Amino acid sequence: MAARNRNELYAFCRSLPAATEDVKWENDLVFSVGGKMFAAFELPAGEPLSFKADADSFEVLTQLPGVRPARYLARAHWVTVETRSTLPRAELEALLREAHRLVTAKLPKRRRLELGL
User: Fold this and answer.
1) What are the tens digits of pLDDT across the range 75-107?
2) N or C: at which end does the chain have fewer Cβ atoms within 10 angstroms?
3) Which domain holds residue 15?
4) Which residue blocks in 1-117 are alpha helix, DSSP H?
5) pLDDT digits (tens, 9 = 90+) for 9-47
6) pLDDT greater than 80 at residue 4
7) Cβ neighbours of residue 56 closer than 8 Å, sequence gap 6 or more
8) Total domains in the fold of the chain
9) How many CB atoms lie within 10 A of CB 103?
10) What CATH number should be reported for the domain holding residue 46?
11) Closest Cα to residue 102, out of 50, 38, 59, 12?
């Protein structure tokens, strides 16, 4: 069940418009759009997972048990969720979709057009 849940979240990230993936820092599966990261999963288990949030969500999320500011990226409003079971699946997907949207919105207009966004 855990591997299925992990793989389903990976597939969800892959399904987002113009999303790409690669392994960074030898141990993180990172999803990006336009070369900018929006989510990262620690390998091999796929947790903890980290993603971009807006400032308000960052404040709310980091008050929840099992969610903390992401190491090295907290200043950019990234959060780390310790396990996939910390938040309901639908909420995790909504947060990952929002992370993708936030990163996409910061891309230059020309880059967004090149990506069909």
Assistant:
1) 999 999 999 889 999 999 999 999 999 999 999
2) N
3) 2-107
4) 2-15, 55-61, 89-106, 109-114
5) 999 999 999 999 999 988 999 999 999 999 999 998 898
6) no
7) none
8) 1
9) 22
10) 3.90.1150.30
11) 38
